[in-house]
């Protein structure tokens, strides 16, 4: 894939990841409600801190794997993305993940980093999707377009979530449901595109 394709796939994956229910999203809501916008925004940038070591390892793996293995990883990554997308569509009406965040008492960036490091999703994502996508790049520089796009997508979405909570003190269940369904569709589309490029 060229740099533009890698950036686009990264942004789409980041947007989907940012809207996916999980501990980090709950922390963003909880911190914004309890400690203000600054605390919520500090949690929103946590993936940049926690995922960089995973990206380095994934990129090293990608440069040492044969094409056949990269294609197999690409298919596994496509399945992971499709599963995430379907899960978001099916569970879009659930309010559990955000509402439970109101009872989470975390007040420091350090605790947010620990929470994300204990989350298995980043490891699965970067060692399947990440390594395969970066392995398909035409150069080392091009391969970095994928994580840059991912960070742009996920941090932007999580920042918007924090701002929305700060301005309204709550997120409408209907708006949250629609956003998650759209995000699920986006992830399934990325999975289909990723699967097509992996088998070429």
């Amino acid at each position: 894939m060229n740099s533009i394709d890698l950036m686009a796939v990264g942004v789409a994956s980041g947007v989907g990841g940012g809207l996916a229910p999980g501990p980090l999203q709950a922390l963003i809501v909880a911190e914004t409600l309890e400690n203000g916008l600054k605390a919520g925004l500090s949690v929103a940038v946590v993936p940049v801190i926690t995922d960089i070591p995973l990206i380095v390892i994934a990129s090293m793996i990608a440069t040492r794997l044969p094409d056949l293995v990269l294609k197999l990883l690409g298919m596994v990554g496509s399945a992971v993305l499709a599963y995430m997308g379907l899960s978001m569509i099916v569970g879009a009406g659930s309010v559990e993940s955000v509402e439970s965040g109101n009872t989470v008492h975390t007040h420091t960036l350090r605790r947010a980093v620990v929470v994300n490091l204990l989350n298995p999703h980043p490891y699965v994502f970067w060692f399947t999707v990440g390594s395969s996508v970066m392995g398909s790049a035409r150069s080392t520089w091009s391969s970095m377009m994928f994580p840059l796009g991912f960070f742009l997508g996920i941090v932007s979405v999580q920042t918007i979530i924090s701002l929305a909570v700060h301005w309204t003190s709550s997120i409408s269940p209907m708006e949250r449901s629609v956003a998650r369904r759209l995000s699920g569709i986006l992830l399934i589309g990325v999975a289909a595109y990723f699967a097509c490029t992996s088998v070429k």
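DSSP finds eleven helices and no strands in the chain. The CA atoms of residues 85 and 141 lie 29 Å apart.
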